[in-house]
Amino acid sequence: MNVLISGGCKNGKSGFAQELAVKLAAGGKRYYVATMVPYDDEDRERIARHIADRAGLGFETVEIPRDIGSCLEKVGGNGTFLVDSITALLQNEMFSAGGEADPEAESRCIRDLGAIIEKAENAVFVSDYIYSDAFRYDDITEKYRASLAAIDRFLAKECDAVLELCAGNLIFHKGGPKV
Amino acid sequence: MDLIIGGAYQGKLEYAKSRCSLSDEEIFVCTEDKGIEFARQCVYNIQEYTLYCVKNGIDALEIFKAHRDDWKDSVLICEDIFCGVVPLGKDMRDWREMTGRLCAYLSGEAESVTRIFCGLEQKLK
Questions:
Q1: Which residues of chain B are at the A interface, by a Cβ-Cβ cutoff of 8 Å?
Q2: Which residues of B touch A8 (CB under 8 A)?
Q3: CATH code assigned at A153
Q4: Which of A67, A140, B17, B73 has its CA 20 to 30 A from that of B5?
Q5: Could you tell me which residues come within 8 angstroms of residue A82 by beta carbon, excluding any fewer than 6 positions away?
Q6: Which contacts (CB < 8 Å, 24+ apart) does range B86-94 have?
Q7: pLDDT per residue as tens digits for the range B51-72
Q8: In this predicted model, what pLDDT tens digit does every residue of A31-58 receive, in sequence order?
Q9: Contacts of A136 in chain B (CB under 8 A)
Q10: Do B119 and A153 make contact, defined as CB atoms within 8 angstroms?
């Protein structure tokens, strides 16, 4: 089963996604696909906190900040993959080249995530809902928002269940509470 | 009238086109530099019209109320711009307020209200 989890920031998506991945794995292999690239001490502390959160849940961490489909080559498709987050993945793919936004980033993410959906036993994807503010962004930011939304919509279409988290509560957009 | 709302890039127009079998000619696309028309079946990007209104001292809600007969059987689409921090500029604050008040009015008048989330429909009314 494949599940997309989105919603506003700081609503408990990561914690819920971890529990769900453990449940879906049902004792089988579980992989945490780490997408975050630390830039400063604050990031490093956050990563350390996340690793501590996952300790005991049996996740094997696979560090793949870019080219995420290669996690399948590394560990095979047998198991449950938690990708947290699509937001960070796209950022890495789009802006790793320096100042310019890579126009191929969106299609690369869709191709790689599609491969995970196709080959993995289970996958849980976490994204961020960043589309409802009254602000005019610059062109690069708008391109990033449009690309993230396109990836989210692709995942929503392909996944068996789509959930929105609001203050720790679940809204089911696709698939029922049986998830 | 059917009201469709949702965040940016969520697939609101695509949804409206497939649900109501709309062709491009039946859609009026609002922009921030022109007034609104209700002659077509669907009015898209109403948040751009409210920005036009703010910049030109027009009350969008009054315009919609005055033209109720013209859109009462239409499909209206507006972006949800209500979840960010309070905008710094007064125009942006007025824009958010005017759009919010208009959406609340239109929700009340609508036969159906649908929110689009990642391309999926969520029935609100």
A1: 6-11, 79-85, 87, 92-93, 95-96, 99, 117-120, 122
A2: 83
A3: 3.40.50.300
A4: A140
A5: A17, A18, A21, A30, A31, A32, A33, A59, A123, A124, A126
A6: B87/A134, B87/A135, B91/B54, B91/B55, B92/A134, B92/A135, B92/A136, B93/A134, B94/B54
A7: 999 999 999 999 999 999 999 9
A8: 999 888 888 999 888 888 878 878 788 9
A9: 92
A10: yes
B119 and A156: CB-CB below 8 Å?
yes
**3-state SS class at A74:** helix
The total domain count for chain A is: 1
Domains within chain B, CATH numbers bracketed:
2-123 (3.40.50.300)
Q: Which of A132, A145, A173 sits opposite B80 (nearest CB)?
A: A132
Q: Is A179 part of a structural domain of the chain?
A: no
Tell me which amino acid residue A43 is. Answer: D
ipTM: 0.79
